[in-house]
Amino acid sequence: MRKGFYICIFAGLVAVFSLALVPNQAQAITNTSSTLSTSYGGRTDTDHLLSFTAGATLVAGGRIAIIFPTSFQFDPPGTENAIASGSITVSSATVATATLSVGANDQTLTLWLAAVDGVDALNTTTVHLAGLSMAYPASGGTHTLAIQTKDTSAAVIEEASSTAFTLIAANVAVSQTQSIQTVVTPPSSKITSPTAGASIAAGQDYVIKGTAADLGVKDVSKVEVSVDGGSTWITANLTKVSGSNFTWEYTWKAPAEGIYTIKTRATDTAGNVESPASGVKVTVTAAPTPVPVVEKPISEMTTSELQAKITQLQQTVLALLQQLVSILTQQL
Questions:
Q1: What is the pLDDT of residue 38?
Q2: Full-model pTM
Q3: Where in the chain is the domain with CATH 2.60.40.650?
Q4: Which whole-number Å values give the CA distances from 299 to 303, 305, 310, 311, in the listed order?
Q5: Cα dihedral angle (303, 304, 309, 311), rounded to 10 degrees?
């Protein structure tokens, strides 16, 4: 009984210290994109991709609402409530139910989320609408989609508009004998680490990371990395995330000192090859000799230095309390 009482006391202290160290974070939807930007008006598609970064973390039962303008029509009409949730995927959750409500000024696709492997999570995500038959307005024009994340009571947590995209108007004067040329969309790749101007330690392995996507009808088959400005290329390790979105990484073995330009190029399963961008320029430098740190006596510290010292001590106490709770729990 006494051990259980002490564990409760220590657990409470851990919670208090943890709250004191966690900063407040604003919640906002960012980094929105959609494959609609490469489409034509007057056509019907059944495969769409919408990406965004959510600031909030949704639990099972939370929802994503995707709001289309009324100029987008579900095809054929009257099938709005026959959406198969299994054909809609979310990269960080499972779609338990998908419903569509048609209003006077818009139409909202609502996705109810379930936990993946028992874990509630939704931050960076990609929504893949594979079973949604959508007819784009023949007049074309510039449009946006509204995105909302909601809690289990349907209260809006955060909302944003997708990046504006322009549909090319349908050409009603095209004769039946005129052929339509297929637009080839090569895949794209991006370096996320390192960033431009970064310094890398010489003689130590460095993992170059990035993303790749294909907005056409094919998948990315490989991503190649060049650390010499495009003179030579080495295939990176490719990992599929969701739909046509991928992550990749390449381990740069013990680079020597110097200035380098890192470039990437992606290839899709149809053989379309990306034209490499200008790349990311980095500097590989020798590791600096560590300088021993001599800590001031408390009596000589400034107010800001004392505050930093207090925070450091809080973190140390928190770590010790967590270890003690773990030990006592194992002994029960």
A1: 55
A2: 0.42
A3: 188-285
A4: 11, 11, 14, 17
A5: 120
